[in-house]
Every structure is written in C-alpha cells, then in structure tokens.
Design brief:
This protein folds into two domains: 2-103, N-terminal domain of the delta subunit of the F1F0-ATP synthase (Peroxidase, domain 1), CATH 1.10.520; 107-178, no CATH class. Helix 2 (23-39) runs antiparallel to helix 6 (90-104). It is 64% helix and 14% strand. 20% of the residues are buried. The chain is elongated, with a radius of gyration of 21 Å. The protein has helices spanning 2-20, 23-39, 41-48, 54-68, 72-83, 90-104, 120-134, 165-178, and strands at 107-114, 137-144, 152-156, 159-162. Strand 3 and strand 4 (159-162) form a beta hairpin. By secondary structure, it is α+β, with helices and mostly antiparallel strands. The protein has a four-stranded mixed β-sheet, sandwiched between helices. It contains eight helices and four strands; from the N terminus they run H-H-H-H-H-H-E-H-E-E-E-H. It starts with a helix and ends with a helix.
C-alpha cells in the first residue's frame, strides 16, 4: 500500500511543481530535506515515531524547514505529510518524485558495477555510450565489486547489461557442459 500512496503523493507534487515551473528546484530541495532527516538519527526517530503527536512534529518540521530554507510548494507539501500522517513514507515519496522527474526530463540512472575504480575519462565515455544506447540523458552511479574479476554490469531501470568476466566465464562453462 505504501508504494501506491507514495506514487500518488509524488505525482501530485510533481504535477504542481511542473505547473509552477519549479520541478527541478523542488527535486533538489526535497532531496536535501530527506537527506537531512534520514541522516539525523534523532530527527528520523522523532518524525517516524507514531507516539509523537502531529503538532509536535509540525513544530519541529517548521524549524527544519527554516534551517534548510524551504518555502512555497514544498513547505506546504511537507506540512501536509505531517498532517496526513504520511511522513514516514517521505523517502519513498521522494524516490517516486525523482522517478517521475526522470521520465519527464528523459533521463535515467545507470547503476554501474565494476571490479576496479573507473577513471573520470572512462566514466564520461561510458556515460556517452549509455546515452546513445538508451536515448536518455544518463547519470552514473558507480559501485565496485571485486568478485566481478573484470568488466562491468550496468543496470538502467529494469534492463541489465552484463559485460563482466564472471558472467562470461559462467556462460563458457555452460557451453562446455552442454557440449
């Protein structure tokens, strides 16, 4: 159920942000707000604990909003989440918001896993190739996994491109076993 709720709230926020022409600004500030709350254990525990009432959460939210300098649409949205007791889903709502923004702006995250760190020029080259392959503006999220031995595994949405040596060796083994 939370994913349905998260999508609905995110869709409503991005629709309003698009109407006001501030979708990118909202995304940036929303991300900063979520990061601030999630990374601060005391804030997270307070906002996500149903034992605390909405009025106390609203007062603390006002202080956080003032500290981060959030105003307008996003401020009203965050207050609505407190009032409707949806604040525990803020991270999921933000992820859905980014997903909708990516669709609107024809961009995608490519999660690339490599055995060794990539040089900056390799990242740029890989990004350009993935943009040509996908037809989208790509932003890379690079991780390292020494068990790959070599090569890379790339995931864009639900599509996986496995160019790892480990995968090639498994395929070779299967071919040898089959004869």
């Amino acid at each position: 159920m939370s994913s349905v709720v998260s999508r609905r709230y995110a869709r409503a926020l991005i629709d309003l942000a698009m109407q006001e022409g501030i979708a990118d600004q909202v995304e940036k500030h929303f991300g900063r707000t979520v990061k601030t709350i999630i990374e601060n254990r005391k804030l997270k525990n307070f906002f996500f604990n149903p034992a605390f009432n909405g009025e106390d959460k609203r007062k603390l939210l006002d202080m956080v909003i003032d500290e981060i300098r959030i105003s307008g649409l996003l401020k009203r949205f965050l207050i609505l989440l407190i009032e409707k007791d949806r604040f525990p889903w803020i991270r999921e709502i933000y992820k859905e918001y980014v997903h909708f923004a990516d669709e609107i702006h024809n961009r995608a995250e490519a999660e690339v896993t490599t055995a060794l760190p990539l040089k900056e020029e390799d990242k740029k080259s890989l990004q350009a190739k993935l943009e040509a392959l996908s037809g989208k503006r790509i932003y890379l999220k690079v991780k390292e996994d020494p068990t790959l031995i070599g090569g890379a595994v790339t995931r864009i949405g639900s599509v996986v491109y496995d160019g790892s040596i480990r995968s090639s060796m498994i395929k070779l083994k299967e071919q040898i076993v089959k004869g």
